[in-house]
Design goal:
The complex is a heterodimer.
Chain A (H helix, E strand, L loop, with lengths): L12 H10 L6 H13 L3 E5 L5 H12 L2 E6 L6 H4 L1 E3 L1 H18 L5 H8 L5 E3 L1 H7 L3 E6 L6 H13 L1 E4 L3 E4 L5 E6 L7 H5 L2 E5 L4 H11 L5 H16 L8 H13 L7 H7 L7 H10 L1 H5 L4
Parallel strand pairs in A: 1-8, 1-9, 2-5, 5-8
Antiparallel strand pairs in A: 3-4, 6-7
Chain B lengths: L1 H6 L3 H21 L6 H13 L5 H12 L5 H13 L36 H6 L3 H8 L7 H12 L8 E9 L3 E2 L1 H10 L9 E7 L3 E6 L5 H17 L4 E6 L4 E2 L9 H11 L9 H17 L4 E5 L9 H13 L2 E5 L13 H6 L5 E3 L4 H13 L1
Parallel strand pairs in B: 4-5, 4-7, 7-8, 8-9
Antiparallel strand pairs in B: 1-3, 2-3, 5-6
Helix pairs in contact in B: 3-4, 8-10, 12-13
Classes of the chains: A alpha/beta, B alpha/beta.
């Protein structure tokens, strides 16, 4: 069992928020409180919010800030136990069997079938998938990403693993976590997640950041960005979110946008540089049309 | 906030009072329409233990993180929090916004327009006994008497609308199909490593999602009841793969309310949930709300989407065309049900309907029982 360099649990949400800031993630009051309570109470944290507001990044930052391992389970339709929990390495088992047979044939000894059988179901033939990894690594942040994409059956199964922080493998026995992993579940609401799962979690809806926070995020993510350009991008992104678009830009998009501006060596966000980089922030043709119709100049007016 | 500063003075009384405060807050939220269970209140209390209670925001976040379960709860929670902790008087004993129960009617069921068969020979009446259902099947729901309507309701609940299954990404063991290396090797292990028999697998079928968008505006009022019952039948048929929304002046998700087994209870719950019964129509806005909040995220993706509306849109039909186009691009099949289509001489010329028409896969009537049966078939075939 591997142990990471463990750090003490923060004493209050403010302290956690400071630790997170140290890793470059700026959490607001609600998210910091949610993360702090999840750690204190050992409850899973269920995060929802628009795409690109930093749900996945939060789990990554949390792992870094608390000095825990990060294990990520990306959910998709058809995810099953063999891909999420564990699997036996059958080809290796057969190879082992054949090797023992061949050795026995050449030396003329009789093999003990019982010890051979026990040897086959050894930990070294077990492939740990993310959930088992999360139980074996300690301490650990388990990120279950886009849980809404997995099937309902998987949800029930996940609930069981999270509740016990242990699993039983018939051939091997029970594997329990030394410290239960801190689970962070994210969802994009493509489907209603079952109440039983939500009830055991702390629920937090992640909002778009306000102007000041977004500027700070941009500055910390892109060291080459000037204060002026960061403020301009944050203002313009904030205005785009007011525009009733099909896909309002998240923080991830404004970081991309600022990155694109730096790559083009633009020093200011004007109609020309905005038109050249609009593809980094708006991903629908209808949205492009709408922004062009309202006029890029309107969007950018009075930018300092 | 006053209660808390007072009760910090002694430990025992403090816990009791805090529990009282939390239970009172939970009751306020329940009155506002949130389902706050006892274990959620326990969780809130546990959170407060870990937080600095003198911090005014601690109470807010402890409650929001534990008592809310979806974004729709957040505005309700915020308002209730201000009302309860902000010193405003909470009006207790407020009745829940429930619709008055419908009067129960027990009238003898007479065939066709009442009174026609009276005065005939008894034998002839008997021979007619099977036909009322047949007649009723073709009748426009809007023109039915109370007793006939009850019979139609009963028959609608017998429908089982569900979309044809789709291929899933999951595989299951099968006699024929691709070789399943995993199971073959596992099987071989039981025979000392000899692959005695090849194990096979094939793709599994999953029910395709069905999304019903029901217009409950004033102009659709005569058909709303039958359509809601149709929705209820669909939810009962495939509870996990069906979503029902009402559109009118706003979007309301009804799936949860319609999960009651008993149709009348389910419809009463649905009635309580719909704030815009028989109001106006803002079709384009409602569709936009559906697409933004549900459709694009995945609810409409690859689903059979059924819009039940007469397509009467005041004002410019261009936005409706735009939203229908978005919907048709996401949906696997887009079906539009318009009760007026069943009427003789109807042509989809009304602004909204004409604008939406080019993007539809199917355009059906839904005015009678027979038409609803046909709709169920169209859905199953899609």
């Amino acid at each position: 069992m591997t142990t990471a360099a463990r750090r003490p649990v923060p004493a209050n949400p403010v302290e956690l928020s400071r630790d997170l800031a140290g890793t470059g993630y700026l959490a607001d009051e609600g998210l910091a409180t949610a993360g702090y309570l999840a750690m204190r109470l050992g409850r899973p944290l269920f995060l929802e919010g628009e795409a690109g507001v930093g749900k996945t990044a939060f789990a990554q930052a949390l792992a870094e800030a608390t000095g825990a391992h990060l294990v990520r389970l990306q959910c998709y339709e058809g995810l099953d136990v063999a891909q999420a929990l564990y699997d036996w390495d059958f080809p290796r088992q057969i190879l082992h069997l054949r090797a023992v047979e061949a050795a026995a044939a050449s030396s003329g000894e009789r093999t003990d079938s019982r010890s051979l059988e026990a040897g086959l179901y050894d930990r070294r033939f077990l492939i740990a998938r993310p959930l088992l990894q999360a139980l074996e690594l300690s301490p650990c942040v388990l990120l279950v990403d886009e849980i809404d994409r997995a099937d309902d059956e998987f949800e029930a199964f996940l609930l069981e693993v999270l509740a016990d922080a242990a699993i039983t493998i018939p051939e091997l026995g029970r594997i329990a976590a030394a410290t239960p992993p801190l689970a962070v579940l994210t969802s994009n609401r493509t489907r209603e997640v079952h109440d039983a799962l939500k009830r055991r979690c702390l629920y937090h809806w992640v909002e778009h950041p306000d102007f000041d926070r977004e500027v700070t995020i941009l500055r910390s993510r892109l060291p080459g960005l000037t204060d002026r350009l960061a403020a301009q991008v944050a203002t313009a992104a904030g205005r785009l979110r007011q525009l009733d678009l099909i896909k309002p830009p998240g923080v991830a998009e404004s970081i991309d946008w600022a990155g694109a501006l730096i790559a083009l060596a633009a020093t200011t966000l004007n109609a020309e540089s905005a038109a050249a980089t609009l593809g980094a922030v708006l991903k629908y043709r209808e949205d492009h049309d709408r922004v062009r119709a309202t006029g890029l100049a309107n969007l950018l007016q009075a930018l300092s | 906030m006053k209660d808390r500063t007072e009760c910090r003075e002694d430990g025992g009384a403090r816990n009791g009072e805090l529990t009282g405060v939390l239970v009172g807050f939970a009751r306020t939220l329940r009155h506002a329409g949130m389902a706050v269970t006892a274990d959620r209140v326990h969780a809130m209390a546990a959170c407060l233990d870990s937080l600095d209670v003198t911090e005014p925001r601690a109470m807010y976040w402890a409650g929001r993180l534990t008592l809310c379960a979806e974004p729709d709860h957040l505005p309700i929670y915020d308002a209730a929090f201000v009302a309860y902790f902000g010193g405003q008087r909470v009006v207790t004993g407020l009745p829940l916004p429930m619709q008055a129960p419908l009067p129960r009617v027990t009238a003898p069921f007479l065939p066709g327009p009442a009174g026609e068969a009276l005065g005939e020979e008894p034998a002839e009446v008997l021979s007619l006994s099977a036909s009322p259902v047949e007649v009723l099947r073709q009748r426009d729901v809007a023109t039915l008497s109370t007793a006939e309507r009850a019979e139609v309701r009963r028959l609608v609940t017998l429908l089982a609308p569900g979309a044809a299954p789709r291929r899933s990404r999951r595989r299951q063991p099968a006699r024929r199909g691709q070789v399943d290396p995993h199971r073959t090797v596992r099987h071989a292990l039981a025979h000392a490593g000899e692959p005695v028999r090849l194990q096979r697998r094939r793709r599994r079928n999953k029910p395709r999602r069905l999304v019903l968008l029901l217009d409950v505006s004033g102009s659709m009022a005569p058909y709303a009841d039958a359509l809601l019952r149709f929705g209820h039948a669909a939810v009962l048929c495939r509870p996990a793969a069906t979503e029902v929304f009402t559109i009118g002046t706003r979007l309301t998700r009804l799936t949860r309310s319609l999960r009651h087994r008993d149709p009348d209870t389910a419809l009463r719950a649905a009635g309580a949930a719909i704030p815009d019964w028989h109001g106006g129509t803002r079709l384009a806005d409602s569709l936009d709300a559906f697409l933004t909040r549900w459709g694009r995220r995945g609810t409409a993706r690859g689903a059979v989407v059924v819009v039940c509306s007469d397509g009467w849109e005041r004002g410019d039909p261009a936005p409706l065309a735009e939203q229908t186009r978005r919907l048709s691009r996401l949906a696997y099949r887009l079906v539009w049900v318009n009760p007026h289509r069943g009427k003789q001489g109807y042509a989809p010329l009304a602004g909204g309907m004409a604008a939406a028409l080019p993007y539809l896969d199917e355009f059906v009537a839904g005015h009678s029982l027979a038409a609803l049966e046909e709709l169920a078939e169209v859905i199953a075939r899609a």
